[in-house]
């Protein structure tokens, strides 16, 4: 039919007349529309209330939440301070869901809208700090987590919230991609490091002196790095802080943890080693609201600011820096190994009572030191290649019983740098190797790390069923036998080890001493590079 033709109507029928709707007034239309909206709203509300009051839903009294710490730097664009009508609408919508809580979780499934950092099922994780990128490329397949040691603070005696990096922007993009191509499952969690001394402070960056604005900027800068370069989290290594910074450091960790976890990332915190005190006491520190619970023996500034139990509530990794027991100095406790098992066992005993086992890592050294025994000569660092050279000059002991070595050596009466601390070594045999030799008319001893000592330490750590270990640090100049052992570890080819029997800490053992002012620390060579 041609649509332009007139429609045909039989003669005995009348042509239908189109329906002409009756015109309604604007007022009538408005009243009807308003009534419909009101009734729809009431129906929706009653339906939601019915869901809330379902008899099969468990009713619980609302929990009393701690007062949140508010970030003040609202001028910086970030997710730290959400605002606006959209956020208000989301809060209203969530409040109407059955048994919803203020954090976005529901009672039925205990499911949170905030992404949680994904964990793998690895029983014992291998991790390492590193600044030697070439060494990391060659061995990244041996690690579950790696910590590029690349970030530091701008500013020395004061902070402004800014970071700097040893890697440029293009390097960070390229190296993250390269490391992931070599080991797609590795977690890349870079470290921000600062050792506090009279020339380097950790104050405004954690909000001390009322500078929450700088703290918030510092957090924003950290999040920017994590977001921009696709890191799997961040590792906070703020060391040697004076005791008045404890509470501000904890506030900083709480805030950073919330933001890191919103992104489904991991927060790692490096802490000073602690062993149990013979007697617990409370220590007042100017500027703190609460006294410090001194249930640990190491009563110098660094350990006082690292509360294991508190940090473990907010961090995914608590990495105890179990090294520098015998630092590079001639005063107490003098020459000896950096991380003997007898000391590590006491650290684990203290830490496991305060940190969930799977969050707890022991960080062990790949270096040692070389001391003069009967002259005032320079103390030297010792790595694998150094040890191979020294072994040509003297006698290597492994295991090392220092008191036995002294008893067997007719010249030991002159070893005053060691003999005055002989009580430290009474009754102990160390798994660590040592080299006793003569150089430039002086008797010397060098402790170092090799595969056998490393394997003994790993056997100890595995027996305690903790989360894993970290190296300070991965270098090309480490015993290559360590990599052979790690190959067996990551491929699950090592035999199981018996579980450790809980025992009371041997508190008379030597504790880590306070550093001397200006003393060159284990990380000082890296710090000098970082702060430039």
Please render the helix and strand layout as text.
Blueprint: H1 26-52, H2 85-95, E1 125-130, H3 133-139, E2 145-153, E3 163-165, H4 169-182, E4 187-188, E5 191-195, H5 212-229, E6 233-239, H6 246-262, E7 266-271, E8 276-283, E9 292-296, H7 301-304, H8 308-314, E10 317-321, H9 341-352, E11 360-365, E12 368-372, E13 380-382, H10 384-390, E14 394-397, H11 402-408, H12 416-419, E15 434-439, E16 442-447, H13 451-463, E17 468-474, H14 480-490, H15 524-530
Parallel strand pairs: 1-2, 1-17, 2-4, 2-5, 5-6, 6-7, 7-10, 10-11, 11-17
Antiparallel strand pairs: 2-3, 8-9, 12-13, 12-16, 14-15, 15-16
Helix pairs in contact: 13-14
Region (Disordered): 497-532
Biased composition (Basic and acidic residues): 520-532
Protein name: Hydrolase
Q: In CATH terms, what is the architecture of the domain at 125-366 and 450-491?
A: Alpha-Beta Barrel
State the share of residues found in helices, binned by percent: 25-40%
How would you name the CATH homologous superfamily of the domain at 125-366 and 450-491?
Glycosidases
Tally the helices.
Answer: 15
Strands of the largest sheet, in order across it? 1-2-5-6-7-10-11-17
What is the approximate shape? elongated
What is the percentage of strand-forming residues? 15-25%
CATH topology of the domain at 125-366 and 450-491: TIM Barrel
How would you characterize the largest beta sheet? 8 strands, parallel, barrel
Distance between the termini: 88 Å
Rounded to an integer in angstroms, the radius of gyration calculated over CA atoms is: 32 Å
| Uncertain residue segments | 1-22, 52-67, 73-116, 527-532
Overall SS class = alpha/beta
Instruction: Tally the beta strands.
Output: 17
Query: Which class of the domain at 125-366 and 450-491 in CATH terms?
Result: Alpha Beta
- Mean pLDDT over the residues: 83
Organism: Leptospira langatensis
Family: Belongs to the glycosyl hydrolase 18 family.
Protein name: Hydrolase
GO molecular function: chitin binding; hydrolase activity, hydrolyzing O-glycosyl compounds
């Amino acid at each position: 039919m041609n649509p332009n033709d007139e429609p045909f109507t039989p003669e005995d029928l009348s042509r239908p007349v189109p329906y002409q709707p009756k015109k309604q007034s604007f007022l009538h239309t408005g009243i009807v529309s308003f009534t419909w909206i009101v009734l729809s709203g009431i129906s929706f509300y009653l339906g939601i209330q019915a869901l809330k009051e379902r008899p099969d839903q468990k009713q619980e009294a609302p929990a009393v939440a701690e007062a949140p710490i508010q970030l003040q730097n609202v001028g910086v664009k970030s997710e730290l301070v959400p605002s606006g009508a959209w956020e208000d609408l989301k809060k209203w919508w969530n409040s109407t869901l059955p048994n919803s809580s203020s954090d976005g979780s529901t009672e039925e499934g205990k499911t949170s809208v905030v992404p949680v950092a994904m964990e793998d099922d690895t029983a014992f994780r291998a991790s390492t700090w590193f600044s030697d990128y070439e060494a990391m490329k060659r061995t990244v397949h041996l690690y579950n987590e790696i910590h590029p040691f690349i970030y530091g603070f701008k500013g020395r005696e004061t902070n402004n919230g800014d970071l700097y990096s040893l890697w440029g922007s293009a390097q960070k993009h390229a190296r993250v991609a390269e490391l992931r191509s070599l080991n797609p499952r590795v977690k890349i969690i870079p470290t921000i490091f600062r050792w506090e001394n009279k020339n380097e402070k950790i104050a405004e960056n954690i909000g001390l002196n009322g500078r929450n604005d700088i703290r918030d900027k510092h957090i924003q800068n950290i999040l920017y790095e994590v977001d921009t370069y696709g890191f799997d989290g961040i590792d906070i290594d703020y060391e040697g802080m004076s005791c008045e910074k404890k509470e501000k450091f904890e506030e900083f960790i709480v805030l950073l943890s919330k933001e890191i976890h919103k992104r489904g990332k991991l927060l790692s915190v490096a802490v000073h080693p602690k062993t149990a005190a013979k007697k617990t006491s409370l220590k007042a520190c100017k500027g703190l609201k609460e006294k410090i619970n001194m249930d640990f023996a190491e009563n110098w500034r660094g350990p006082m600011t690292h509360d294991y139990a508190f940090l473990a509530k907010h961090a995914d990794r608590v990495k105890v820096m179990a090294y520098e027991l015998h630092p590079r100095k001639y005063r107490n406790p003098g020459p000896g190994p950096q991380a003997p098992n007898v000391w590590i066992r006491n650290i684990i005993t203290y830490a496991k009572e305060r940190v969930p086992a799977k969050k707890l890592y022991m960080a062990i050294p790949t270096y040692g030191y070389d001391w003069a025994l009967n002259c005032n000569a320079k103390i030297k660092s010792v790595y694998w290649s150094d040890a191979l050279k020294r072994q040509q000059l003297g006698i290597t002991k492994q295991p090392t019983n220092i008191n036995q070595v002294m008893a067997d050596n007719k010249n030991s009466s002159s070893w005053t740098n060691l003999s005055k601390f002989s009580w430290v070594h009474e009754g102990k045999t160390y798994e660590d190797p040592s080299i006793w030799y003569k150089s430039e008319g002086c008797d010397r001893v060098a402790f170092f790390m090799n595969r056998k000592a490393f394997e003994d330490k790993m056997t100890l750590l595995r027996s305690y069923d903790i989360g894993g270990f970290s190296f300070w640090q991965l270098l090309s100049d480490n015993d290559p036998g360590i990599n052979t052992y790690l190959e067996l570890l990551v491929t699950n080819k090592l035999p199981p080890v018996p579980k450790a029997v809980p025992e009371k800490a041997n508190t008379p053992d030597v504790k880590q001493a306070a550093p001397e002012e200006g003393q060159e620390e284990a990380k000082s060579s890296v710090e000098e590079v970082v702060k430039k």
